[in-house]
Design a protein that fits this description.
The complex is a heterodimer.
Chain A lengths: L1 H12 L1 H23 L20 H4 L5 H34 L5 H13 L2 H14 L6 H25 L4 H8 L4 H30 L2 H6 L6 H9 L5 H33 L14 H4 L1
Helix pairs in contact in A: 2-12, 4-7, 4-9, 4-11, 5-7, 7-9, 8-9, 9-12
Chain B lengths: L2 H33 L1 E4 L3 E4 L5 H7 L2 H31 L5 H9 L6 H11 L5 H8 L13 H25 L3 H9 L4 H12 L1 H17 L2 H6 L7 H10 L4 H26 L2 H4 L7
Antiparallel strand pairs in B: 1-2
Helix pairs in contact in B: 1-13, 2-13, 3-7, 3-10, 7-10, 8-9, 10-13, 12-13
Classes of the chains: A mainly alpha, B mainly alpha.
């Protein structure tokens, strides 16, 4: 009976990692399913589970063969790029004001940034639609852009703000001491150091925009975005190409996120290297040759 | 500082504040206005202080409202049970896999929410192996299905909002001073006591933030109920969506949506009163 009790002990010792592993697997299941099914051959109009009908790259080769889907994806990309550009600029300016300045109305501003993030999407969509109905505003790309910028701003502020808080201001002071104007300091010192944070914020805004279904559903009129297309066809059965494009988008965003994270880590490493550290050897050209 | 210098923050804030006021605050006013109208779609809706829309919108949809509390509450509890050990493991036991695990936690955000939910529909569909396993274990009757049940909707909600629970919990746990747990153990507390008397109280802010960030979107959601549920699983979000977009009964839809906003605003304001805006901003420096 030695083995079961030892197994039991092992299980008890590793219960936490096992549980965590299962939880992570649970989070990744649908992503894997989407990717695997993009290679699955499906007989027309029939929904089956798994790759019973064999493995095929047919849908990857014909990924862009559905005109409606292409148009929806293109609309989504255009919308996401525009919404990201606008919300990232506006949000970054707000974050700078909040971290670098003390002013009246700070608390109210914070509240105004936090509350949209805590509001259910259905309420944001419904209230915007109420206003557009009141003014008989034509729904379409314009109203979608308004909505997407609106819900992205808060997230941009949060991300850029957290970068600004851990920001070493000595570098800016040094630039000012060396005679740089405030604008030149901002352009040559602040902005480059803040770039990874701004990139992360832009990436978040982009994925929020390209992902949004609920708010768009209220304010799209006849304009069709990628999620709205998927919703439209979901009752009849989603074409496999959707899985292919979703997998492509996943890969694209995953790579972009990894790059930003890697860049951030590198920036942190560089910031932690201080030449004035006592006892640290100062690298000298030619030193390696001398020894 | 000169008055010119004092204006700088306002210039920086102006575009963002303007956007948020015009497209977030002002629409709430118009939603309230729409909620006080009466009439019909054909004759048009006219404003006449129709206060009765508010009680009517509640009494007409009690079933869906109760269900929303039940579904969102259960999903939040499940998410907490899944997320706490996971966040704990990532914070203290992950070692060099920490970044990779955090990456896995946010990975679902890289695919479209709708497509993820449709993937769950496939996973839980009648012909799927998952359902046969559940049937073999007698968790589901032999001829029973998983799709179009409360269980499927709750599972979908739990899945979709899980990262919102994990991230605040992780942020809180990571800041935890491990010396306090050591101190508890030095004073002869068992692991269990140390957890209940030290770790758990100290991570309460993370738990509360995670619960709010999960419960609020889950309460307002309609995608999971629509895709994974059947006709008997509609939530408040489905009612608002259908009244606005299909039946075009704007006053009732606006009234219901306005009440939902009021409820959530009340919860958030109470929370901010005690904890500040920090948890939503991702840090504790800020207290409003």
């Amino acid at each position: 009976m030695a083995f079961p009790s030892r197994a039991w002990a092992w299980l008890r010792r590793n219960a936490l990692p096992i549980y965590a592993g299962l939880a992570v697997a649970y989070m990744l299941i649908p992503i894997v399913v989407i990717a695997v099914f993009s290679f699955g051959a499906t007989p027309k109009g029939k929904l089956t589970f798994g790759l019973d009908n064999g493995f095929t790259t047919e849908y990857w080769r014909s990924a862009f063969s559905l005109p409606d889907l292409n148009e929806a994806l293109f609309t989504s990309l255009r919308l996401a790029v525009l919404a990201t550009a606008i919300s990232t600029v506006i949000g970054t300016l707000m974050a700078i004001a909040l971290v670098r300045h003390r002013f009246r109305g700070r608390r109210l501003t914070n509240l105004l940034i936090v509350i949209p993030m805590a509001t259910p999407e259905v309420v944001i969509g419904a209230s915007l639609l109420s206003m557009f109905i009141y003014y008989s505003f034509a729904l379409g790309f314009g109203t979608l852009l308004i909505a997407h910028v609106m819900f992205s701003i808060s997230f941009v502020v949060v991300v850029v703000r957290s970068r600004l808080i851990g920001f070493d201001r000595h570098l800016e002071e040094a630039a000012a001491d060396l005679g740089a104007t405030p604008l030149a300091t901002f352009r040559t010192v602040t902005l480059p150091l803040l770039a990874p944070g701004i990139m992360a914020a832009a990436l978040l805004a982009f994925s929020l925009s390209i992902d949004d279904f609920v708010i768009s559903n209220f304010n799209s009129g006849t304009t069709v975005t990628f999620p709205l297309y998927v919703y439209g066809v979901s009752l009849r059965g989603v074409p496999v190409q959707v899985n292919v494009l979703a997998t492509m988008l996943f890969g694209l965003i995953a790579v972009a996120v990894s790059l930003v994270l890697w860049q951030q880590r590198r920036a942190e490493k560089m910031a932690s290297v201080r030449p004035e550290q006592e006892g640290a050897p100062i690298p000298m050209p030619g030193a390696a040759v001398a020894t | 500082m000169t008055w010119r210098g004092r204006l700088v923050p306002y210039w920086l804030l102006a575009p963002g504040l303007l956007w948020l006021v015009v497209f977030f605050v002002v629409p709430m006013y118009f939603m309230g206005e729409l909620a006080l109208r009466s009439g019909s779609l054909i004759s048009g809706y006219t404003f006449d202080w129709a206060w009765s829309n508010f009680p009517d919108s509640l009494s007409g949809h009690t079933e869906q409202i109760v269900r929303s509390f039940y579904y969102a509450g259960t999903a939040t509890l499940l998410a907490l049970l899944i997320a706490y050990p996971l966040a704990y493991a990532i914070a203290f036991r992950a070692g060099r896999y920490k970044a990779l695990l955090l990456f896995a936690v946010i990975a679902p955000f890289f695919t479209t929410y709708l497509i993820r939910t449709i993937a769950w529909k496939t996973i839980l569909s009648d012909s799927s192996p998952v359902v046969s396993v559940l049937q073999t274990l007698s968790l589901v009757p032999p001829d029973g299905r998983v799709l179009a049940t409360s269980g499927a909707v709750i599972a979908g909600l739990t899945y979709n909002f899980l990262p919102f629970m994990i991230l605040p919990l992780y942020a809180n746990l990571e800041r935890l001073d491990l010396r306090l747990i050591e101190a508890a153990k030095d004073l002869y507390s068992s692991s269990r006591q140390a957890f209940l008397k030290v770790t758990l109280p100290l991570t309460m802010p993370g738990i509360v933030a995670g619960v709010l960030l999960t419960f609020i979107p889950a309460f307002g959601d309609y995608v999971n109920a629509q895709i994974l549920g059947g006709t008997g699983q509609a939530m408040v979000g489905n009612v608002i969506q259908s009244l606005y977009l299909n039946q075009r009964n704007y006053p009732e839809a606006a009234a219901l949506s306005f009440l939902m906003m009021a409820l959530i605003l009340a919860i958030v304001m109470v929370y901010i009163r005690f904890a500040g805006t920090g948890a939503f901003m991702g840090d504790e420096e800020e207290s409003a």
